[in-house]
Amino acid sequence: MHELPITESILEIALRHAADAEAEKITDIHLVIGKLSSIVDDSVQFYWDIVSDGSAAQGAVLHFRRVAIEIACQACGEGYHPEELDLSCPACGSRDVRIVAGEEFRLEAIEVE
Q: What is the DSSP letter of 6?
């Protein structure tokens, strides 16, 4: 359910930037979402169709780019991309790790006419 306010924020940001560029229509929105974020693409798309109705962004295509999880072990320096949610270091077994990538959520680009 938290996708509704997130989607409303995406729309507000897109509309503001389109207005600054004196664009009449937003055609595409590019989003970057890390695999560790709790954002559900289908929910954002569902809400987008509702909140953008009647705006300059109505009909804009949402593009979702998922970012893989990247971890750095603080104990041994190993860098790795876990497939599962077990973030333990595969080299030394340490759980003293730092998330390098995978928590992102941002609006990367807006295409306008």
A: H
CATH, domain range 3-112:
3.30.2320.80
| Of residues 1, 2, 19, the one with CA closest to residue 110 | 19
| Residues sharing a CB contact under 8 Å with residue 91, sequence separation 6 or more, in sequence order | 73, 76, 78, 80
At residue 67's C-alpha, the angle toward residues 98 and 41, to 5°, is 125
Are 33 and 110 within 8 A, CB to CB? no
Count how many residues are written for the chain. Answer: 113
CA distance 10 to 113: 18
Kindly tell me if the per-residue pLDDT of 1 is higher than 70. no
Segments making up each domain of the chain, as ranges: 3-112
Q: What is the pLDDT of residues 27-41, one digit of tens each?
A: 999 999 999 998 999
Pairing, β 26-34 against β 61-67: parallel
> What's 30-72 look like in SS3?
EEEEECCCCCCHHHHHHHHHHHCCCCCCCCCEEEEEEECCEEE
Prediction pTM value: 0.86
